[in-house]
Amino acid sequence: MVVVVLGLSSTYGQIVNMESLRRASDTSRWSGNASINFKLTQNTNKIIEMYSRIHLQHVKNKHTFLFVNDYDFKESNDNRLIDKSIQHLRYNYKINQRWSWEAFTQAQSNEVSSIELRWLLGSGVRMALNPVKQLKIYIGTAAMYEYEHLKEETKNLYHNYARNSTYMSFKFFPNDKVSLVGSIYYQPRFDRINDYRISSDNVLLIKLFKNLSFNTHFTIWHDAFPALGIEKTQYKLTTGLTYIFNKS
């Protein structure tokens, strides 16, 4: 048996949550992180797993730009179990210490979940709450347009929806070595309230060196009306290493 590991991933899910990727400090002009987890196993089966994430943030005065590119892949004996990607771009304008305005767009694909393309375009407001120095809480709501191309067996389905996206997130920094970031989203259709999605995303970072941290990332996702044959509830747990950089 041959095993090569950088990071470790377990089970299956579908979401990238931008809230967990925001940098806690806006003191530097450029910041970001890069993560890669790779696993190769050869015994009676050949299993290849790969997960990568690149996140960039640029801050200038009241303007913040955020970008994430995410890719997740898992294959067993040429049978593709996971193959998904997501690209997200977000702009934030800080109105004052409490309120900000945001606009975002996102492209997503997930072969296993029968999503050929899901494209989002939206805008909304965000409110910041800071009950204590080590804890920050954010509440936001937005309206978004969603275009969706699903492939169910031999059929291609195309949908156009308007959805609300409401979230609450928190950032907890008990000390300079540990950080915990979590979010929960609720996204119902405006014209059909029982067609909704709920997701929760949580990331724990433990600093090992100046720019290198150990990460544990748990996501759970529920879709009231997924593509045919796809589970309504999915989740994912990953652990690995994250490199973080800051440049003024």
Q: Please, could you describe this protein's structure?
A:
The chain has 248 residues and is mostly beta strands. The protein is globular, with a radius of gyration of 19 Å. The protein has a 12-stranded antiparallel β-barrel with strand order 3-4-5-6-7-8-9-10-11-12-13-14. The protein contains no helices and 14 strands. It has one domain (2-247): Porin (Beta Barrel), CATH 2.40.160.40. Strand 4 (46-60) and strand 5 form a beta hairpin. It has strands at residues 2-6, 8-12, 30-42, 46-60, 63-76, 79-94, 99-110, 115-132, 135-152, 155-172, 178-188, 196-207, 212-223, 233-247.
CATH architectural label: Beta Barrel
Number of strands: 14
Task: Name the strands of the widest sheet in spatial order.
Answer: 3-4-5-6-7-8-9-10-11-12-13-14
Mean pLDDT: 84
Give the strand content: over 45%
In whole angstroms, the N-to-C terminal distance is 47 Å
Profile the largest sheet.
12 strands, antiparallel, barrel
Here the CATH topology equals: Porin
**Top-tier CATH class:** Mainly Beta
Low-confidence stretches: 1-16
Helix/strand order? EEEEEEEEEEEEEE
The fourth-level CATH homologous superfamily is: monomeric porin ompg
**Count of folded domains:** 1
Structural class: mainly beta
Q: How many helices in DSSP terms?
A: 0
Helix content: under 10%
The best one-word shape is globular
Rg from C-alpha positions? 19 Å
Briefly characterize the structure.
By secondary structure, this protein is an all-beta fold.
